[in-house]
Amino acid sequence: MCTLLSRVAVCGGTHGNELSGVYLVRELQKTEKPLEEEDELVSVLVVLSNPRAVQQCRRYTETDLNRCFTHATLNGPESDKTPYEITRSRELNSLLGPKGSPEAVDLICDLHNTTANMGLCLIAYSDHDWICLHIFRYLQRQMPDIPVRYIHFDFPPKEAYSLESVGKHGFAIEIGPQPHGVVRSNIYTTMKAGVQHVMDWVRFFNSGTIFEGGSVEVYTMVKNIDYPRDSETHSITAAIHPQLQDQDFCLLHPNDPLFQTFSGETLRYKGKEPLYPFFINECAYYEKGIALSLARRKFTNGECRAHSPWFHNSKVIQ
Amino acid sequence: MCTLLSRVAVCGGTHGNELSGVYLVRELQKTEKPLEEEDELVSVLVVLSNPRAVQQCRRYTETDLNRCFTHATLNGPESDKTPYEITRSRELNSLLGPKGSPEAVDLICDLHNTTANMGLCLIAYSDHDWICLHIFRYLQRQMPDIPVRYIHFDFPPKEAYSLESVGKHGFAIEIGPQPHGVVRSNIYTTMKAGVQHVMDWVRFFNSGTIFEGGSVEVYTMVKNIDYPRDSETHSITAAIHPQLQDQDFCLLHPNDPLFQTFSGETLRYKGKEPLYPFFINECAYYEKGIALSLARRKFTNGECRAHSPWFHNSKVIQ
Which parts of the sequence bind Zn(2+) (chains A, B) (predicted)? Predict the structure, then answer.
């Protein structure tokens, strides 16, 4: 069902203050094998995506790089006033893409951190990309001590705005909680292990291993909820309710506490459908008007096996 | 032993991304009484210290405001190139000081957040200012559910660099863990309660209450420890060890794990004296070369009572 994954990119520092990815990319670059010594079945490109933002330890310098990979932005006009991140997105598109073309790398794994208590999440634009789903399943089994989840952003490819959309396959690995501008050993170590497992899976796949199909749990993003704000100043007037804080992926029911205003009042969830909250109190989303996101959970069915064309020497991993 | 505390300042947003203080100051300003309705024994000034940094949700715009209140910086020359925060420190010195003068406000309480797991700390430049020590003792008793500690920075007044040094008495209230750029309800609520208790104490004191003396525990800062760094790039090469992370105020013994390098090696504490770590993995201190601070603990002795001159109508709080 798929050719080899012969070109894989591991990217970090797409947001310059999400430090696990920044330091992991630097570490991987130190130990990167010269091309001639590389595994013949896969070449791995390790990329620091936004070096200028990393230098300043900020999410971005002029505009959010990880919103620049839409078809429109990648192909828009360029001038002296083009923000650094838009120029950089085009450089990355040349290096790893072009997006949507046969030249694009086979898989992009982009490393992120969140202040939300989300454990390890794979975030992808597809709920039927069997490469991504099999990698997810493999991570879940290899990392039983931490919650591993799959979030699906249901956008068409042209509108997909983030770096991983440049690859033929791709996902973000989002790990938290970790404050931006801080690296915590436990989060760094989890990310390092996660990337190692992804690369192990790629090598197993390329060498002909057959991965059994099965059902996986997918969270599909439904909507975002903003903070209550002052109508004049636009300043927020409440924080996430203490009963909701850190409860990512715990079902939120109608009338559950959602916010606590700064004067102490409880505001409740007015939606009619119970949904799963995630990105609860993510630092970078205050400016985007997102206090939390809500998802619907489903189980993908199907017996689709993942295997490379090399199955003459295959073994089965269930 | 002390006159009335008739002018008190509560400041927040001295660091623009420490959001509990920012939102608490805004909330207090909303409910501030007009001057004519104020308690006749105390006037309270509520100040957003660095509005430009708050606007940008950054610690500072050009230089760290909370390092600008030394005698030298407050009294240095001014030009067109003077950083915003130095100009602002002089405005605040005019409003709340001048530092060291009889016109200075009686008490400054400056609100801060840290990414370190420090609970609530009072940080002051004196270990024998009985106003600060009595307020500390009062907070400890009023807030039994959270750890309340007193940190002493042993600097002479002229070299004291932070905002609270402008008042006749003063301390920072530092509460964590909270990521910068994020407000967490539990931390905000703790800060709000802390400030309320401080103001209660001030009103008790001003109305003649006698506070019994006694011993309190004080952590005096001894030294800072930086991250291991690459000698060429100056980039950090290790994170706080997972066994030390979040263990603020737990005694660090010689040979205890201190850092874990990004390649996985454990580096140990080489000091000879067991000391108490704090500000472990504080976000803003990466750029200052501080991975953690170390303190010696002592118990102040003495039977010094705090009371205002009004003790004709006093009651005793032990």
Answer: 15, 18, 112
Residue B247 has φ and ψ, to the nearest 5°, of -100, 35
CATH number for position A168? 3.40.630.10
- Residue A300's pLDDT band (boundaries 50, 70, 90)? confident
The 10s digit of each residue's pLDDT in B214-233 is 889 999 999 999 999 999 99
Contact B177, B124 (CB under 8 A): no
A246: domain CATH number is 2.20.25.160
| Greatest extent of chain A over all pairs of C-alpha atoms, in Å | 67
Contact A242 B186 (CB under 8 A): yes
Contact yes or no for A23 and B236 at CB 8 A:
yes
* CB within 8 Å: A281 and B184: yes
Render pLDDT for B100-156 as a digit per residue (tens, 0 to 9). 999 999 999 999 999 999 999 999 999 999 999 999 999 999 999 999 999 999 988
Cα torsion through B261, B265, B271, B275, rounded to 10? 70
Token reading at B270: 């080489």
B157 falls in which pLDDT band (50, 70, 90)? confident
Q: Where are the alpha helices (DSSP H) in chain A?
A: 19-30, 51-56, 71-74, 84-96, 130-142, 185-206
Considering the domain boundaries, does residue A2 fall inside one?
no
Distance from CA of B242 to the nearest CA of A (A): 6
Judge: B184–A245 Cβ closer than 8 Å, yes or no: yes
User: Touching check for B196 and chain A: CB below 8 Å?
Assistant: no
Query: Same domain for B180 and B236?
Result: no
Number of folded domains that form chain A: 2
CA B286 – CA A28 distance, rounded (Å): 22
Mean pLDDT of B19-29: 97
B245: closest chain A residue by CA: A184
Q: Is residue B2 part of a domain?
A: no
Nearest CA in chain A to B192: A262
B281 to chain A, any CB pair closer than 8 A? The answer is: yes
Verify cis geometry, omega within 30 degrees of 0, for the bond prior to B98: yes
Active site residues of B: 174
In percent, the amount of chain B with pLDDT more than 70 equals 91
Q: Is A128 annotated as a binding residue?
A: no
| Residue A72 belongs to a domain | yes
Q: Tell me the chain B residues in contact with residue A240 when contact means C-beta distances shorter than 8 Å.
A: 184-185
Residue A15 touches chain B, beta carbons under 8 Å: no
**Chain A CA closest to residue B57:** A287
Average pLDDT value for residue range B65-77: 96
Q: How far is A116 from chain B (nearest CA, A)?
A: 10
In this structure, the answer to whether residues A61 and A134 fall within a common structural domain is: yes
Residues in chain A, total: 318
Residue A226 C-alpha, separation from nearest chain B C-alpha, in angstroms = 14
Q: Mapping DSSP to helix (H, G, I), strand (E, B) and coil, where does residue A92 land?
A: helix
pLDDT at position A304: 59
Higher pLDDT, A38 or B212: B212
Claim to verify: residue A206 and residue A233 sit in the same structural domain: no
